[in-house]
Structure prediction request, 767 residues.
Amino acid sequence: METLQNEILCFNISGFSVFIAIWFYAISWLNNKLTLLKKLGSFFLFISLISLTVALVFRGIALHFFPLTNLYESLVIFAWAVIAAYLFLEWKFKINSFGWIVSAFLLIVFLYASWLPPGQKQIAPLIPALQSYWRTIHVPPLLMSYALFLIGAFSSIGYLFETKFFNKSKEGKEGIRTTKETANGVKINSYVREISEKAYFFDEVTYRCVTFGFPLLTIGIITGALWANHAWGALWQWDPKETMALVTWFIYAAYLHLRLNTKVSGSILALISLIGIAMVYLTYLGVNQFNFGGLHTYGKIE
Amino acid sequence: MVLKNYLMNFKKAFLEEFSSVKLAVILFIFLAATTLIGTILPEEPMVGTSELIKKYGLEKYRLLKSFGLTDVFHSWWYLALLTALGINLTVASFRRVFPKWRIAFAWPVEIEEANIKTLPINCELSLNNGFGLGNLEKTLKEKNYKTKISGKNLLAVKGGWHRLGASVTHTGILTLLIGCAISTLTGFNGMAQVAENEGFYLADLGDKSIQSRSSEPENWLAPVSKMPIWLGRIPSYLIKVNKTWRVDYKSGQPKQWYSDLSVLDQNKKELIRKTIHVNEPLEFMGLDIYQSNWGRFSRISFNGESVTLPLENLHGEDVIILPLGEDVGLKLVPRVSSSVPRVSNHDSRFTIHDSLELYSISADSTRQKYLGKVEKGKKLQLGPLSIGYSGTQTLTGLQFKSNPGGVLIYPGLFFIILGVLIAFGSRKQIWALVNDSNTKIIIGGNSDRAKGKFFQEFEEIVSKL
Ligand code: HEM
Prediction:
């Protein structure tokens, strides 16, 4: 079947905007006085988000269905989720220092999606097992959680660089007290754990991403189970994709519980977040790429 | 006495050990690692024993099997890890998590000047020109804090609902685990391939004497699997297929499979009737029946043992391929020698395949060798193998199950989702007090979650004063 011209145009605009955003973000990152460039970076990411949304709408109209039927569409929605998650976090927590990494990563996703063989991109009818509204409930939360975990992982890398990996000398046991003066001359003492303010920030961003992502992952896994129950009559079949999602879930549950203990070093948490993202990769693409088998093989590249 | 002491100590140590979050994290990591191994290694229930023996060789297969590595998710050590997690969760929930409910709504406790100065964020403001706790209270109220002033002390708090999240999630997981246990003990499930106008008793799957009479002399019932029930019993329902059909896309690919089913009681009285399709099951009194597959099947016997095999479409021809080794196989082709006029292409109910042709095939060549032909109801001797053929017919693949733990599983899943959603948030507390000499206000604050955002807010509040 045909793929739509309009959709391809929007997809390309989106990819190109991401490409431009990389440069604006990168330059503003190297010289953090250039706030205008950073804003332009966000602007282009925003354009990318909009045109990607339009591309998805075109596809949805052609399919008469929410466009989530193959690997290509899944990647496009994943890219959408990464942009949306990043822009949200940038607005809410000012995480713009990794704008360039996120945009560069997005570019890879775009290139990968357009590199996919045509068979993976066609607008094709669904096989009986996949025709269900459950699909639209099950997959988007998962893709959104992957996007958040990804940004969390970038932040963990930032943390590890900032603290010179496991260099203990910088992470002394004692906390640092810093004193800030407000405009009207009041001195505010704050206690910033045992690490630099920047490292502290990275740690917190990862934590935010995990607290946003974990509920979404949980919802995704559970709605998946409910769908399987509806379609195949079993909630859980120990299918590789299911079990990989469970592995990911255990890792982030470990992260959340470790975080309850304030004595656990940030490096360990950062490391767990990185293991987590590796598991996300295996869950999302690895299960099919490395041929673990199972029922979820629809996105396989032959 | 000694024994009692010993038991008390044991109980204490047990509760201590199993209420620890450290243990939970260790279990999470172990479960993640073992689940990963289970994902990567092929699982026996999924791929079948012969596949594993082919892959590993018998020796290695036996060794792996003895370690549970051929079926990780049903191995004793995986179950042990899950059980440990369950115990850990139960003990920790009651000892550590549920008691924290109260914190969600409690007021912070008043603290002294010296202690405020050790809070993660704090400052001092001098008291002059009418400035007092009232001003601070007003600013805090603007920021949606709940405030309380008593004498020289001010307490303010915002948020706290999220502290319920952990309790709700943990309750959900506990409920889920109990529900799964109940389903495993008292539930049943199974699969059957049934032809139109035929049926089967749930409780007596496979017992020919009590099947409903079919229009065909041959009995098509082919139970594929049945899970034992450990407690309770399977209801004596008869499931009857009134009609079954398939709808295609224009391209010829299957679009949907349908089965019109009735559930009958012992006296053949109809209890419920419904047309099901994939994703649209029949649900009746805790029994669910699903459309799981659909197709044409041939009933063939090998040395007297009969099997029902699905036909696959190979180059436009409906055939059955039986692999016999690495690269040789048997191809079975049902042949039509007489047929009543067909209604549509895919409605093969009216086609009578009254013979079966046999070919040997090999993977490396397109050549095939004709071995012989079996008439319906007859047998053919091929070397040591006797092959019988009893015909080909369209069957609908039904899957049925009863899941009594569902009443706990579903609320459990709901509470898990609800809990993880609630758990999101933070509780911010601010203490302020006027010092003894009435010269200064000391303000300090804390947040139980990400502190950066709270510090910003604190600075904003102080700048506004
Ligand atoms: C198995 C043993 C477990 C133990 C000992 C344990 C222990 C705890 C404790 C002590 C808390 C803190 C409660 C509070 O501060 O109010 C907590 C929070 C939490 N637990 Fe568990 N837990 C376990 C299993 C699980 C599992 C399997 C999950 C699965 C999702 C889970 C999800 C959560 C969540 C979402 C929170 C809230 C986290 C937060 O507020 O950051 N727990 N757990």
In short: Residues A 253, 256-257, 260; B 21, 24, 85, 88-89, 92, 96-97, 100, 163, 165-166, 169-170, 173, 420, 423 surround protoporphyrin IX containing FE (CB under 6 Å).
